[in-house]
Amino acid sequence: MIDAVGLHKVYRLKKRRVTALNGVDLRVEPGEIYGVVGQSGAGKSTLLRTVNLLERPDAGTVRVGGEELTSLRGAGLRTARRRIGMVHQHFALLASRTVAGNVAFPLEVAGVGRTERRARVGELLDLVGLADKARAHPSQLSGGQKQRVGIARALASRPDVLLSDEATSALDPATTDSILALLRRLRDELGLTILLITHEMDVIKRICDSAAIMEAGEFRESGRVLDLIGTPGSLLARSLFPLPDRGGPDTVVVTYPRSYDEPLMSELTRRFDVDVNILGGGVEQVAGQSVGRLIVDLRGARRGPALSYLAEHGLLVEEAGQ
Ligand code: ADP
Ligand code: MG
């Protein structure tokens, strides 16, 4: 749905040149939630603004839904942009307008008639759970409610793609959860494709199917989250699941990005005559799937072959001790 190739962007300030994008390729499949995570200044917002051509790249092409946006200008570009909604960190609502008035705004700009506009605003407020707040003003809303208005407004033109720039960064954890759940539901119900940027790993863990780690204008790593979790040496996996800080020389961390029916640990002690002592573990939901993690001390003469056996069964095995 989004296909960006070879994006470069340099900002020229008085004396300095800042390379915000340094050869970024991004491909987001239809109906996917794709997260770009990175520290402040990494180039995330520039990338997002380049995807809808609010920022024109110095080099590279952007296609959305098969249409090459980089070749469009003026009215053609404005029309194409209606297929792309955008949600902002600080909501960007008009204080003088009611909730309904804010959601209606893009419809007015697009020349949608009054009757149709009313009906559409009603639908949108229902969709985000704010039907009872239509006549309230933004100052009367909580942060989470403001972001729901922002999302409803972004969906007014029935876009296929939603771009989210740190939509939850100004919200508390519980509200963040409810907004992420809303985004996921919108993807499921409307078939939206969502590209979001965030500096919070937890957002990636909770709702993203695919993700990229961005640093200094480049993608350091990208791929499907569940694939990366099973990839030895993955940066994303390490950030989502840090190694325990206290590990002995025999400690290993076993991660399995799917459920297991086989009694692998008892199999291990039987076959390889090793002692397994469980130190910790848990199961977390990642990309809508259970990912289990077990921290164990594993001792015995045939420790090496035992670890290889786990790896051969598709489990990610990492030595945790120093
Ligand atoms: P992020 O969203 O990851 O924090 P940005 O895309 O906002 O990163 O910024 C990337 C780099 O580009 C930063 O060094 C930032 O200072 C610079 N930058 C962003 N926008 C502009 C601009 N309009 N003019 C000049 N420099 C900019
Ligand atoms: Mg930013």
In words, what does this structure look like?
- With 322 residues, the protein is α/β, with parallel strands linked by helices.
- Helix 10 packs antiparallel against helix 11.
- The model has no long low-confidence stretch (mean pLDDT 92).
- The chain has two domains: 228 residues, 3-Layer(aba) Sandwich (Rossmann fold); 77 residues, ACT domain (Alpha-Beta Plaits).
- It is built from eleven helices and 14 strands.
- Strand 9 and strand 10 form a beta hairpin.
- 34% of the residues lie in helices and 30% in strands.
- The structure holds adenosine-5'-diphosphate and magnesium ion.
- Adenosine-5'-diphosphate binds next to strand 2 and helix 1.
- InterPro entries: AAA+_ATPase, ABC_transporter-like_ATP-bd, ABC_transporter-like_CS, ACT-like_dom_sf, MetN_ABC, MetN_ABC_transporter-like, NIL_domain, P-loop_NTPase.
- Pfam families: ABC_tran, NIL.
- Keywords: Amino-acid transport, ATP-binding, Cell membrane, Membrane, Nucleotide-binding, Translocase, Transport.
Write a short abstract of this structure.
Keywords: Amino-acid transport, ATP-binding, Cell membrane, Membrane, Nucleotide-binding, Translocase, Transport. This is D-methionine transport system ATP-binding protein. The protein is of the alpha/beta class.
